[in-house]
Amino acid sequence: MPAIDNTYRTHYTNQIESGLLGQRATIAGWIEDLRDIGKVVFLTVRDVRGVAQAVVSGQSIEIIRDKQRQSAVIISGLVQDSKSKDFSLEIKADRVIILNDATHPLPIDPTGRVESALDKRIDSRALDLRSPKTASIFLLRSVLLENIRTTLRSNGFIEVNTPKIIGSASEGGANLFEFEYFKKPAYLAQSPQVYKEQLILALDRVFEIASYYRAEKSHTARHLSEFLSVDIEAAFTSMNEIINIAEQVLMNILSLNLSTSEGDMNGSKTLLIPKPRFPLKRLSYQQCVEDLKKQGENIEIGDDLSDASLRVLGEIHKGFFFIVDWPTKLKPFYIREKENDPRFSYSFDLQYGHLELISGGQRQHDPNRLKERLIEQNLNPDNFKHHLRVFSWGMPPHSGWGLGFDRLIMALTNLDNIREAVLYPRDVDRLTP
Amino acid sequence: MPAIDNTYRTHYTNQIESGLLGQRATIAGWIEDLRDIGKVVFLTVRDVRGVAQAVVSGQSIEIIRDKQRQSAVIISGLVQDSKSKDFSLEIKADRVIILNDATHPLPIDPTGRVESALDKRIDSRALDLRSPKTASIFLLRSVLLENIRTTLRSNGFIEVNTPKIIGSASEGGANLFEFEYFKKPAYLAQSPQVYKEQLILALDRVFEIASYYRAEKSHTARHLSEFLSVDIEAAFTSMNEIINIAEQVLMNILSLNLSTSEGDMNGSKTLLIPKPRFPLKRLSYQQCVEDLKKQGENIEIGDDLSDASLRVLGEIHKGFFFIVDWPTKLKPFYIREKENDPRFSYSFDLQYGHLELISGGQRQHDPNRLKERLIEQNLNPDNFKHHLRVFSWGMPPHSGWGLGFDRLIMALTNLDNIREAVLYPRDVDRLTP
Known about the structure:
2 copies of one chain form a homodimer. By secondary structure, the first copy, chain A, is an alpha+beta fold. Chain A has 13 helices and 16 strands. Chain A has helices at residues 7-10, 60-64, 118-123, 125-128, 132-154, 193-203, 239-254, 258-261, 285-294, 307-317, 367-376, 385-388, 405-412; strands at residues 24-36, 40-47, 50-57, 72-81, 89-100, 158-159, 165-166, 178-181, 184-188, 205-213, 226-235, 281-284, 320-324, 347-352, 355-362, 398-404. An 8-stranded mixed sheet of chain A has the order 6-10-11-16-15-14-13-12, with helices on both faces. In chain A, strands 1-2-3-5-4 form a 5-stranded mixed beta barrel. In chain A, helix 5 crosses helix 7 (239-254). Chain A is elongated, with a radius of gyration of 27 Å. Chains A and B meet through strand 1, helix 4, helix 5, strand 6 and strand 7 of A and strand 1, helix 4, helix 5, strand 6 and strand 7 of B.
């Protein structure tokens, strides 16, 4: 195998542009197809940016003739017009280097001609990603992460990094992974909730995009035990203002021109959903219960909205909609109740049909009331002592939300299973690769 | 306490700009100082963007007079010229709302007039962040994270999210946190090494900025058990090219005009080091050993560079420099040895004096040699079976590095202790707040 030289990257393009006609070009990537017609071998080489054709003849033919598809190659030569119906230009190869062989049979076919089950594809994820369809999901993730950060920064949010190793169960104790941390019990954080609330006490508006952990025993298509969350929190900000920011995040994503935003990454094919009308519907929880009753559902004010109920609501309202003003007792201790009717709270979820994408609201900033709320929810205030003391340092009214990023990708690309949207998903049955 | 209304944010400014003279303005923040001179109270209100003065008289005076410093307030009124030497403009308050009290005595003084030990400051981090000096470190983190991502994206890197819960010890087994994952043993990842190498097999160039975990029992000023790492990996890329990218990341950071890049966040005061000359020195390991010998150090080719040795080198070379071509046996199994002298490898570290900021190199892409290297380093290839199989799918030559982001902040701001650079540090003794 040859050593790498610096010229690889410099001249490297899998998009042979028209301006290159008659010039030298080098392509690096993986053999997608190889047609040996005797004195000439036609070769298509793919990488994440696209696919190019090369024509090999003369001495180089012996190097390439017996090579397996998906082997890594570098090919140089002059660019010429192509007679192929798929390519207008091609490289007439005079330099062919095999960087590494692909050993067949391969566990899956990344060209997509032979379909494989999702589990098999995840088992061989690195190879699965050579499929443009799979790659486009993860290219979309990359583009959206940046787009979301840009929207948040333009709204004055500062990026922070909070600990994922925590000393006490910060939002109740259910479903936490526990481990021994230098002889002390510790847990993996299931959200940055307490930290982001603390930080607005000085940094005003903060956001974090990071992985969190829930020991979910469920086998649903929308839960994982490790997931990426976009979290924001803002001081001096009401529920409606924080909903506006969620809406702006979504609006900016949906107005992305993905076909041009990151080269020729086929991102435009990935966003499959129609653009909703903004502002989105903000349905009250009580309105939702009324709607469900009209559909014959057996539900009363105060009941949680089951997955079945949310599916019915999703049928009525379609696409994206907010459910606001949930019963206080259905929401976590840190959500603030309404002054005029404490049975209900300044809380909201963003739904995409039955799928909950965002959950948030205005927070309880009164330290005494916060302590009472912990007790009401059968939580031990002693476990929250590091958190509660912060509220006596001039805690302003504040609001925030958490967005399940993997679920957002599911929604935007019409995927049925969250495992399609995550490179290396983790669930009750899967810990590898 | 009042409900929040939407006007808070809209009119909210702690920088009273000259154009506001004679107009209404609202400021929200925390009382820094309060001078009661009888019929008038002078008040300074700070938030992360700056500090403003308000003059309160009339009825509002009774609301504010006895309030403690660091209480959260909102103040509205007309902007007028100020006679104060610190402010050219001030608000003549006609509306004063106390959002929440600060209960005294406070555990630390965030104005910095009374200094507190670092441990005490971390115990009360949310309050400590009201100090502009502390806040500036974390504002710098936010700005640099974005700047690094921009540099990487402009070099064709795609952002990925790899799992932090892993099923086998991926880089040896030392210093991993272990826990029970649905009745199976699992570990917290100490780097994305195996995943980022796998992903370049299709995505070509990837980066990730995320938290990783090492069960470090050390008590040094530069190790934490949870740390933020910037990781990149690139196919068809040599060690020198990947070093060039590290250099470009650093150059772009050091050419940031921080005083304008994120409002008036005093970021310019944070970058304390002089700008180095680019390109940075690339010293060979062998050259370093020669230098150390000349200084009377007891060291031979093949020995690791101890912290003491690195301190001596840091004295000779100052600031940033690379050490390249380390002995193969001192580097992890995935580093590629040189063809012409396999005792040495395509590996490098970026030093800032004695502090190692980046470690990287070209990787071993030959699957057979990689397996041999595992055995040479007393690792069990069976634990790497999910990883090794990927190398038979046409793995190209590739290179990458990992940057300790918290250490970079330490270096750039001349901090002595990494705990200053992390919001909620985690070490052998600290698991809270």
